Amino acid sequence: MCPCCGCNLISNTKNFWVFATFSCVDWIIRMIDTKWGQRFTFVKIFLVSIGILLCVNVVMLVFHLDMYPQFDTNNNMSLPIERKFVRSHLKDTIPTVPVPVQSKIPSIQQKKVDIIDSHKDEMELVEPKPIPLKPSSPYDHSGSIQDFGLSSLLLIIASNRPEYLSQNLAKVVEYHPCTVLPIVVSEDGNSPQVSTVVEKYKKEFHETKGCKVPFLHVHHPGHHEPAQNGYFRLSRHFKWALTNGFTDPNIAPNKHPFDDNALGKVDRIIILEEDLLIATDFFNFFGVFSHILDEDTSLLCISAWNDNGFSKFIHDASSIYRSDFFPGLGWMMPRRIWNELEPKWPRAYWDDWMREPPQRKDRHTLRPEVSRTFHIGSHGVSNAEFSDYMHKIKLNDQYIHFEHLDMAYLRQEEWDNKYELDIHNAQKVTTNFFSSSPDTTNTTIQYKIMYQGLNGGPDSFVSIARRLGIMENIKANVPRTAYKGIVTVWIKNMKVHIVPESYMIVEHKKLT
């Protein structure tokens, strides 16, 4: 206790030295004043100054290690201020506990405990919080043709058109990867000519090319049943073939019609009609996107067809688009979609039915800018509808290694952001602009033509499509190839978007 006032000033060693220093200075001042009184003022000031300096130095010495962070020479890093080291003259009386420092953990927090009472330091280590990882996306890694495995199936829908089937199978056998993707030709009938064609290419597939995967020829048992027209018969055949293609032999081993369980469980099916030829990279295209279709629930299917894929309207064989329109004509469907569609499959006009909102549910189709199939049929169920257009579609003739390309731009969020930005920045023009413009080599500038309504009036989509020469057909209020009502084509090497006025109104509201 302090003898003057009873405080705890000297209750610990640190405060004792401070108190003693100030007491000495006070004693010196009193002695000088008693001895010399009012004389020798300069000498008195000098001696008092020395005393004050002495006091300040003692205080700084006492608090030195508290005022500056210590340095750990072993780990070459500065320690926190809270770390207290006991002064040398106290080491014999107050034990200390050394605190380990982990140099690779930067966020170390130390909690001070009174060193006199506890005789130790307590240190709390806080592990660094892990950086949250972005959820994995199927677009983050490249697929390959081997992703097909044996859980994918190529289903060729055939009737009694052996001349078309022969051309189809010639390309299928030529480009098939051999190690994956079994083939099933499903015939709606029992034609000897069709069987001859199938056996010819099955032999070439297995014996000449040496492929080991199954190549089957099955027959729709209901082909002899009467039907209202060809569309009813076709829809009935599709349902039978798809149902049995997706049948799991492990669940119904005795009901699988495809060659006594030669096939395992199928997760996805590529549907190809007999009057379609395929491109050289057809299988690679579907193989790379198969895992994306499995995982991205915003997708309805993958299609090989572009309804506006005429030579004068395309530019880049590696470009892929999202579309609200279901094109068919060589497409891949996953099991999850078939499980949803099978119970309500229509009796006829299945392709138009697929385009309606209750089936599409705002899901998209991935389709190429340059088609991977080519339609050769001039007679069939549709009576060659749109044949003038379809025969002008360009079949891709260069092999694109999609597995080496970055497909992240097709992720829906990225696609929407980029697409909206392109539309916003595109220069607004009319159809007259392209009739008077020469071909250009500057492919970076984009243009947009606005339309009002789908049909009726000179500024409607149908009128503009006719003037440009693109496909004018509309199904379920969606123009062919459209995304959010926007149809994108290339004209004279210029990228052109045909955009509804309603889209620009929505975009303007979003910006304001």
Low-confidence residue ranges: 65-97, 99-117, 119-126
Helix content: 25-40%
Strand content: 15-25%
First-residue to last-residue Cα separation: 74 Å
Q: Order of strands across the biggest sheet?
A: 7-6-5-8-12-10-13-11
Identify the overall geometry.
Answer: elongated
Cα-atom radius of gyration: 41 Å
Short structural description:
With 512 residues, this protein is α/β, with parallel strands linked by helices. Helix content is 34%, strand content 16%. It has an 8-stranded mixed beta sheet, with helices on both faces. It has a 4-stranded mixed beta sheet with strand order 15-16-20-19.
Search tags:
single chain; 512 residues; 15 helices; 20 strands; 34% helix; elongated
How would you explain this protein's 3D organization?
It contains 15 helices and 20 strands. It has helices spanning 13-36, 41-67, 115-118, 162-175, 192-208, 230-245, 282-295, 335-341, 350-354, 357-360, 387-390, 412-425, 432-436, 461-468, 501-511; strands spanning 71-72, 77-78, 108-111, 122-125, 152-158, 183-187, 215-219, 268-273, 276-278, 299-303, 320-323, 331-334, 364-368, 373-375, 427-428, 446-451, 474-475, 478-479, 487-491, 494-500. The protein has an eight-stranded mixed β-sheet with strand order 7-6-5-8-12-10-13-11, sandwiched between helices. Helix 4 (162-175) links the parallel strand 5 and strand 6 (183-187). Helix 1 runs antiparallel to helix 2 and helix 4 (162-175) runs parallel beside helix 5. The longest helix has 27 residues, at 41-67.
